[in-house]
Amino acid sequence: MTSTADTSQHPDAAEIADLAEGLLAPSRAEHVRQHIDACSLCSDISATLQEIQELLATTPAPAPMPADVAERIDAALAAEPATEATPHEGVAHVSRETALSSRGTGVTEPIRGKRPSGRPRAATGPGRASAARRRHVAALSAAFGAAVIGIGVFFLQSSPATSGGDTSAAEKASKRGGTPVFVDAALQGQVHSLLASDATASTVAPQEKKTPSVHMDSGPTTLKNGLDVAVPPCVEKGIGREEGPIAAQKGTYKGSDAFLVVLPHPTDSSRVQAYVVDAACVHTTPSPRGKVLLTRVYPRG
Prior knowledge:
Layout: H1 13-20, H2 26-38, H3 40-58, H4 67-85, H5 96-104, H6 131-158, H7 169-175, E1 181-182, H8 187-199, H9 206-209, E2 221-222, E3 230-231, H10 233-239, E4 247-253, E5 256-264, E6 271-278, E7 292-299
Parallel strand pairs: 1-4
Antiparallel strand pairs: 2-3, 4-5, 5-6, 6-7
Helix pairs in contact: 1-3, 2-3, 3-7, 4-6, 7-8
């Protein structure tokens, strides 16, 4: 898809959505991804689009129209032919024969004078809305309004309750359905959300942070940040780092089980490095190195 946004400006929402779906050219995708990593506004837009996509995927099919609303609409439609066929009140029907006979007996028709200037003529002909048609439109409008209200109440009752207003869109999307979904365009928000929840847990002493992880052949490493997430040895092998992880989370990436592991940046303490590693190695004996599916560097937040 050809980009419509200038490279010196923010990418539009459509282009950010194309990035998440893999529709952009590789060069343009890399440029947009770098922009999202550095721009909090575009990162929020990307997270919001991911939230909408997840919401549409989990929203149940709408319920049938309420019976009382359907009956009202049917009654309004059934009354339309009878209303149109009813002659207008106060208008007497005069046949052509009566009009001709009145002329023959010498009865003259009243002479209509010219309308004073500045006075508009009354609307006549098919362009003038009849009272019956106005009543029909009003009945249909009322029925449609009742249907919209009924559908709105259904969605309000069926939609899951949202968290506080300060919860980011990426955090809500990652928690929907009980299984986090890792997406490249929203990964920065998910990492920051994970680090923020880690900050509220018990802190780790500096010497514990620098302690190398256990031997690769031993059992999974349990994080000491209060999240109680175990990083399997094969995942540590795939990452190839000796530092203990800051935070970790298990979820899915493009439909497959994966681990999101956050470690300190090797050279810059103000940044972190996130790894998304395939979890297929956990179920393989002997365990191979976990395949790193995605790695990104973000500010510590």
